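Support request, please re-run this one:
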Amino acid sequence: MTTLTTRPAHRSESGSLLAICLEAFADEAVTAWVVPDPEARLAGMREMLPASLAAALDAGAVILAVGPDGEAVAASVWIDKQGAPAAPVPPTAGDPVARRLAMVVSATAARHPAVPHVYLSAMGTLPRWRGSGAGTAMLRHGLDRARGLGLPVYLEASTPSNRRLYARHGFSDHGPPVPLPDGGPVLQPMWHGTGTPWAYAGSDPLSNTR
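Re-run finished. Output below.
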């Protein structure tokens, strides 16, 4: 079995990190739903990812899984959150991609905890390294970091297999799932740690969306 190690990513690795994310996240369930066309999806990721990855690198929020040769094979983003979540974004008419992206942002913003926590916003592995334990290694690293900060961790699982992985590492479902419309994936909010992240009121910004 291949031995993988983990470490924080460095600001100087922005170029290689972008390449990893473009490949690892290209078939992610929510991304594929927002932009169904693979070529348009890749172009959109190339345009939008650099700024968000730069911010995550500056914040020390990126954890890498590294192979025996020292090359990164997977990446995850763990964002420290303080206070109330951002306000939901109203759906955008006309542009179907912008409309779906607004739906995702609104749905997840409605579920984000209003207490300090770490948000595992993304985790992906290069296709040829999937099944190697990269996800498990990054989860252990990120959870150890969160424990050191005294913070719980929140995420939205986008596939049943991801949900099972997180459950094996101590995450539990928190609140009902969030089904995205138009045949989109079902997101399951999950929580790791003590305390109650929010009092779920039963409202869902997508419940009346068609």
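The radius of gyration is 17 Å. The helical segments are 14-24, 29-34, 38-58, 96-109, 134-149, 160-168.
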